Amino acid sequence: MAANESALLFDQPGPRMLRRIKIINWVAAIVFVAIAVLIIMRLHNPPDGENQLSWELWKPALDGEAWADFYLPGLWATLRATCLAVIGAVVFGLLFGVGRLIPNAVVRGVCGVVIEFCRAVPVLIMMIFFWRWFAFMDLPSPAYWAVVISLVLYNGSVVAELVRSGVGNLPNGQHEAAVALGLTRTQSLLSVEVPQAIYAMMPAAVTQLVVVLKDTALGSIIMYTDLLQESRRLGSMYFNILQTLVVAGVVYFILCWLLSRLAEWLPVRMQQRTMAPAEPEPVAPIAILDPSNVNQIAVAREERPLGGSQRLYHVHHRGTNASIHNWRRTRYTQGYDETQPQSQIARDGHQHHHKGRNGRTRPDPDMQ
């Protein structure tokens, strides 16, 4: 699959280009190793400082006291702000995303201005503004609420755009079918289109969680005691700021990696839930001159209006394989169906006919 996708992007390289790519890869690897060695040597023997690879500096950053008193409380503060910001961003995004799609021009314009403003203003500026405002109003935990509200506004505007793009990517037939059933534009949007858009945008929304988690680190600038702030406090106590920041970076990497794997797994899981039953059913091969495959051939030859998909209800046919086990159970039912006009070849008491094994036309036994 990956080879086919890459072939769509560019031509497959020839032997000369393959040799050139291999040489470039080896040169890049040698340069990378050389840079890594130089960094390690610099850390081991800095010109005016202590050996940064010494265990005396790494031990206070890795012992149990550091985790119990600094890392874990900071991680809990980060996760607490992230979870609340995610919930608020989803609610904000759904409200303003739907508001930007409804027919009312005033509501649509107001929602559009709010979304564009929240997307344009940097998150750090919003955090500083809310922090100073909440502190001036003497509200409790001003740094925490400044971080949460700023993340809600920025990421909620992103979720609103995901909702709008998800609705825009739906087939036009969804809206047309809802209107044909008598629903208004707003009812169609809320009952038919938005639920499908939410289901389709879920993987992109999970990817946005990584952005929310990383942006909580900006709260350390306004003195919010998250994981980054706690690691800096620990480093200032033992003068090993590099070591504590490395540990915090590893924790951030693990959390973001887990969320990225979730974002990759979710589309596959959602696609499996929307597919037909995975339990295969034995179906005989379609052969042109094989009379036992009359049903499959008849369905395959049916016309598809405007080049669309296969009909949900078929003209019902009979053949020698009429008792095949659950053949396309959701699309085809053996026998004559009086409710389908396509299968009513004759009307007003005339006999219905079909072809038998020998190709001759004879009365339908069900109509006798």
Automatic annotation (TrEMBL):
Keywords (alphabetical) are: Cell membrane, Membrane, Transmembrane, Transmembrane helix, Transport
Q: Which domain of life is it from?
A: Bacteria
UniProt keyword annotation of ATP-binding present: no
Record membrane topology: Multi-pass membrane protein
- Give the species this sequence originates from: Bifidobacterium italicum
Query: Which InterPro entries does the UniProt entry name for this protein?
Result: AA_ABC_transptr_permease_3TM, ArtM/GltK/GlnP/TcyL/YhdX-like, MetI-like, MetI-like_sf
The molecule here is called: ABC transporter permease
Spell out the subcellular localization from the entry: Cell membrane
Q: Where is this region: Disordered?
A: 337-368
Q: Name one GO molecular function term.
A: transmembrane transporter activity
Q: Which NCBIfam families match?
A: HEQRo_perm_3TM
What Pfam families does the annotation carry?
BPD_transp_1 (PF00528)
Composition-biased stretches (Basic residues): 350-360
The transmembrane segments are: 23-43, 77-98, 110-131, 143-163, 237-260
